Target: Endoribonuclease YbeY
Amino acid sequence: MSIEIHNETPADVDLEAVRGVAALALEHLQIHPDVELSIQFIDTEQMSQLHVQWMDLEGPTDVMSFPMDELQPGAQAGMLGDIVICPDVAQQQAEANGHSQADEIQLLTVHGVLHLAGYDHGTAEEKQEMFGKQADILRAWFARTEPERTRLPIPTES
Model:
């Protein structure tokens, strides 16, 4: 599996943790191990531009996903797509939700991978399925990396 990560911001992002949680999400979703994934950390200005360009919404957002080959679970290798995350928005959300920026970035990474795999939260049923998978992956991640942890950054909204 090839996970390419670039941080174009001054934010101190644990890129190995991001790589690890993304790999776990791909494994959990049974995405072919030879897929390619790109994760990029960008500033609020760049994120605002993408948000307007692709969603016709003003202002920055936390995470955006851009699927490439629309790979499904069990599919062969290919380019899964790109995820862009804004650490500044992640920091604001982390503060509002009482956890660290690192936790929020890991949550957003999983959220982005789920979108690339075809999950969405446009309806109540879709949201329940997507957020359930997101919670399962985050529980598995923190059980692996911080087994003593009792509180996880698992939101009901995103």
Notes: Residues 2-144 form a domain with the Collagenase (Catalytic Domain) fold (CATH 3.40.390.30).
